[in-house]
Amino acid sequence: MPLAFSLDHKCEDATMRNHFDFIVAAANLRASVYGVKGCTDEEYFRDVLKTVIVPDFSPQEGVKIAANDAEAKENDHSGAGGMDDVDAEYDKLLGSLPKPSELVGFKLNPVDFDKDIDDHMLFVTACSNLRALNYSIPTEDTHRSRAIAGRIIPAIATTTALVTGLVCLELYKIVGTARKDLKLDAYKNGFVNLAIPFMTLSEPTSPASTKAMLKGKEWNWTAWDSLDMDMGDITLREFVDHFEKEYNLEVSMLSQGVSILFSFFANKKKVEERMKMKMSDVVRSVSKKEFPPNQLFIILELIANDMNTDEEVEIPYVKFRFR
User: Could you say which of 89, 94, 118, 254 is the most buried, measured as most Cβ atoms within 10 Å of its Cβ?
Assistant: First the structure.
């Protein structure tokens, strides 16, 4: 059953505004991919949608849709929709892509589905409900859709208590043995299935490590490591100089979240202006956001090259204390 678009439409079963929800959720997810701040203001969407012109659908000429196996074989032999068409379409798409040199500094942020993020579930709920309305299938609200998407099974009190106990045992090892340097084999992973019943403990595997050469020494760091800086709210120039003097690294790009604070290809005048600014001011200027009053650290990621070999050196994120 075809649907007529209406921002005010509500489905009968779940009383969800699926048309409006789809527009808002899809727009915000696409904005997050490009690092653009989203918006949920209904009046804004109503004003923008008034200016959107949807082109009329017109069937493509020369396309024959097979209604049975015999017609499908005939299309294959005649070349309609065959491999030649696919190759031509591939070449056309490949030729329309910009060159890598034109995309320097351009960054896309992948969106990984998480049922606990409301924007994600709003999009999934709106899509599934609109599809259900096409086929006169009962719709569901966001809460029920979240349970379906995550295959959530209500927790049993005994299982929750058992898992909590196992977590606390590992916590005691950390807080109760602060003066001891515990090895990895001192900790345990637990696997429990009370339906069988089955329970086993195993040693956790060590995190993957990355090798880096700093100050002429080899350093194998993991995702748990960071470079901590407690030098106060220094300027961007002092920050870059610190890596040159302390680690013999030339910083070619510096970012905070989706915001690029410094890069070798940026406008020279703008770079010079930022070099004189405090690190916190640079972040505020680029991100257009204020820091919460209780925030003490800024998490920074950078790309740096060895000043002697000019080879890129992989290093962990920088935990910069500015207060």
Answer: 254
Q: How many residues does the chain have?
A: 323
| CA 226-228-231 angle, 5° bins | 160
Does the pTM exceed 0.85?
A: no
What is the rounded distance in angstroms from the CA atom of residue 144 to the CA atom of residue 115? 11
Residue 102 DSSP class: G
* φ, ψ dihedrals at 72, nearest 5°: -65, -40
Q: How far is the C-alpha of 139 from the C-alpha of 120, rounded, in Å?
A: 17
Q: Token match 């820091």: residue?
A: 291
Token pair in block for residue 258: 């989706």
- Residue 154 is classified by DSSP as P
Contact 129, 123 (CB under 8 A): no
Pairing of strands 227-229, 318-321: parallel
Q: pLDDT (tens digit, 9 = 90+) per residue, 255-298?
A: 998 889 999 888 889 999 999 999 999 999 998 889 999 999 99
Amino acid at 271: V
